[in-house]
Design brief:
The complex is a heterodimer of chains A (about 290) and B (about 100). Chain A is an alpha+beta fold and about 290 residues long. Chain A has 9 helices and 8 strands. Classes of the chains: A alpha+beta (about 290), B mainly alpha (about 100).
Chain lengths: ~290, ~100
C-alpha cells in the first residue's frame, strides 16, 4: 500500500485525536484501548478513501469516528468510577432516595433534640401535663413566694434560659375560710396567682362592667363559674363586693374562665395579686406559654 | 456476578451483526450504521455482561496481510440466548442485518 505524505499526516492527526481521548481511559485499560482504536482507525481511513489519497468526505468520516473514541473513553472512565464507589449501583434508585431522606430526617431530629429551644419547649410541655412533677422541685426553693425571679429559678433548676419562654406564671392552692355579707361563712379552695396568670394561660376573664377597680388596695378575686352561680345566684352585682379569704381582704372582679376548672386544684376562686404563704406540702403549679 | 443485561435495540442490532459474521468494530459500525461512540461502549457493556467475548488476531496473520491486527468479537451462549430474545422483541433487526448481508 502506497502512502503519501499527506495521507500520513492525516493519519497522524487522527491518531493524535485518539491519543488525547486515551488520556481519559483508566490506565489499566489504556494500552489495549489505544491499540484497538488505532487499528480501527486504520481500517476506517482505508475504507473511506479507497482511491483518492485525501477526500474531504473521508476526512469527515474519519474525524467523526475519532470523536466517538471520546465517548467510549468517557464511558470507560465512568464505569471505572462506578466500580470504585461501593454504592454506585443504588445511585439514582428509589432505595437511594429513601436512604437520603431518612438520613436527612434523622439528622434533623437529632439536631432538633439537642437544640436548647426545642429542649425548653419539651420541658415546658412536660410541666404543663404534669404539674405535680414541678411541685417537689420548686417547693423547697420557692416558699419565699412571688418576689422570687421565676426565670432565674427555672434556669437554675433546668438549665433553660428564661428567654425561651414567652410567658411564665404559677399558682398555689389553699383551703381558706370565706366570709362575706351576702353568704354564710364557708370554706373554699382558693388558687393564689399573680395578675398575669390568665394572660399567660390564654384564658379570658369575664369581668363585670360595674366592677369597682382598686387593684392597689385589695387583691382581685375571680369566682369559679359554678361557685358564682351556687353561692351568689349568678348575680352580676356581686362585682365589687369585698370578701375575706382567710386573712386577706379581696374584691370580686369577675368570673374565672371556664377553662380554669380543668386546672389542677379545681379552685372555687382565683385570688390575684395576693401574697400567699407557700408551703412545702402545698407548693402549687407552673404555667408557661 | 454479571448483571442482568439490558436488551435494547442497539444490543439486538450488534448481536445480530456479530452473529452474521461482522466480527470486528469497523464492520459492525458499517453494517449497523451506528456511530463509533455508540458501538464501542455498547460492545464493552455487552462484553461485561458476558453476551460477547473478544480476542485479538494473531500478529503474524496481520503482518502477513500488511495491516494492523483486529480485535474480533463472538457471541457467547448467553449472547445467543439474548439474540433469540431480541429477535422476538425486535423482529425487524433480523431483517435489517440479513438485507445488509445480502448486499
Amino acid at each position: 500500500m502506497v502512502v503519501s505524505n499527506l495521507e500520513l499526516l492525516v493519519y497522524k492527526a487522527h491518531l493524535g485525536l485518539v491519543w488525547v481521548a486515551s488520556l481519559l481511559v483508566p490506565t489499566s485499560q489504556r494500552s489495549e484501548w489505544s491499540e484497538e482504536w488505532c487499528s480501527e482507525l486504520w481500517y476506517v481511513l482505508r475504507e473511506c478513501s479507497p482511491k483518492t489519497s485525501i477526500h474531504p468526505r473521508s476526512m469527515k468520516e474519519a474525524t467523526v469516528f475519532c470523536l466517538g473514541a471520546y465517548r467510549d473513553a468517557i464511558w470507560l472512565r465512568e464505569r471505572s468510577w462506578q466500580k470504585q464507589r461501593p454504592f454506585a449501583r443504588i445511585r439514582g434508585s428509589a432505595s437511594a432516595c429513601i436512604f437520603v431522606l431518612m438520613t436527612i430526617f434523622l439528622a434533623t431530629w437529632g439536631i432538633a433534640d439537642i437544640s436548647p429551644r426545642v429542649a425548653a419547649v419539651n420541658e415546658v410541655s412536660r410541666i404543663r401535663v404534669s404539674p405535680s412533677r414541678m411541685s417537689d422541685e420548686l417547693a423547697a426553693s420557692w416558699d419565699c413566694a412571688f418576689d422570687v425571679r421565676l426565670e432565674e429559678q427555672v434556669e437554675k433548676l433546668f438549665g433553660i434560659p428564661q428567654r425561651y419562654f414567652d410567658g411564665f406564671s404559677h399558682y398555689t392552692i389553699t383551703r381558706d375560710t370565706v366570709r362575706a355579707n351576702s353568704i354564710p361563712k364557708t370554706e373554699w379552695t382558693v388558687a393564689h396567682a399573680p395578675s398575669n396568670f390568665f394572660a399567660v394561660t390564654n384564658l379570658s376573664i369575664r369581668s363585670f362592667g360595674n366592677a369597682r377597680t382598686d387593684p392597689a388596695r385589695l387583691p382581685r378575686l375571680l369566682l369559679n363559674e359554678a361557685t358564682w352561680v351556687e353561692d351568689f345566684g349568678g348575680k352580676q352585682d356581686i362585682a365589687g363586693a369585698e370578701l375575706r379569704i382567710g386573712s386577706v381582704d379581696a374584691i370580686v372582679a369577675g368570673v374565672a374562665p371556664s377553662g380554669s376548672t380543668n386546672l389542677p386544684g379545681r379552685a372555687n376562686a382565683w385570688l390575684l395579686d395576693s401574697d400567699p404563704q407557700f408551703r412545702a406540702d402545698n407548693p402549687g403549679c407552673l404555667a408557661s406559654s | 456476578m454479571a448483571r442482568k443485561p439490558r436488551l435494547t435495540h442497539i444490543t439486538g442490532l450488534i448481536l445480530q451483526a456479530i452473529d452474521a459474521g461482522f466480527a470486528y468494530g469497523f464492520t459492525i459500525m458499517d453494517m449497523t450504521g451506528l456511530p463509533s461512540g455508540t458501538v464501542y461502549p455498547a460492545m464493552r457493556r455487552m462484553e461485561e455482561d458476558q453476551l460477547i467475548r473478544s480476542r485479538w488476531e494473531r500478529q503474524a496473520v496481520a503482518d502477513r496481510e500488511q495491516r494492523p491486527p483486529r480485535k474480533y468479537y463472538q457471541l457467547t451462549d448467553a449472547g445467543k440466548t439474548a439474540l433469540e430474545a431480541s429477535r422476538k422483541r425486535y423482529p425487524l433487526v433480523e431483517r435489517l442485518v440479513s438485507s445488509a448481508e445480502a448486499k
